[in-house]
Specification:
CATH topology: TerB-like
Helix content: over 70%
CATH superfamily: TerB-like
Order of helices and strands: HHHHHHHH
Distance between the termini: 37 Å
Strand content: under 5%
CATH architecture: Orthogonal Bundle
Protein name: Putative tellurite resistance protein B-like protein
Largest sheet: none
Number of domains: 1
CATH class: Mainly Alpha
Structural class: mainly alpha
Length: 146
């Protein structure tokens, strides 16, 4: 189902993604972070739905559908390095920075930092071309908001 999308995303000369495709790719990244600790809990699923509903102005039904599609895409997506590098090429910096905030919101949703999630988040941040400082500031904003 997503083979053509993944082929376009990982093509050498990737064009910027359309709004819908960018939402799908970034939501798949949220799913990848949530699955990093091999405990894809209902609380994380609910948080992904809330994040996408808020960020993209979706109804709860639309957010759940986007997440479901993103779960399928994430399972079919290449390794994290290729996947995030493709997103970096196809999505503007501001959108990537906003998703780092969402990734921290998701990673911190259970009130504790998990080593596997932290490690993957650091990797994703680097491969998305986000500076460590910007990532740390995003994490601090999320910690202060909760």
């Amino acid at each position: 189902m997503f083979a053509d999308f993944l082929r376009r995303l990982t093509a050498p000369a990737t064009d910027p993604l359309s709004g819908d495709d960018a939402r799908l790719a970034l939501t798949a990244l949220l799913v990848r972070i949530a699955r990093a600790d091999e405990d894809y809990a209902q609380a994380e699923i609910d948080r992904i739905d809330r994040i996408t509903a808020r960020r993209y102005g979706l109804s709860p039904f639309e957010a759940a559908r986007l997440r479901s599609d993103a779960e399928t895409l994430e399972a079919e997506a290449p390794d994290t390095v290729k996947f995030t590098n493709a997103i970096k090429t196809a999505i503007p910096y501001e959108q990537r920075l906003a998703v780092i905030e969402s990734l921290w919101e998701l990673a911190l949703a259970d009130g504790q930092r998990d080593d596997a999630e932290d490690a993957l988040l650091r990797t994703v941040t680097r491969f998305l071309g986000i500076s460590d400082m910007d990532s740390a500031l995003a994490r601090q904003r999320i910690e202060q908001a909760t």
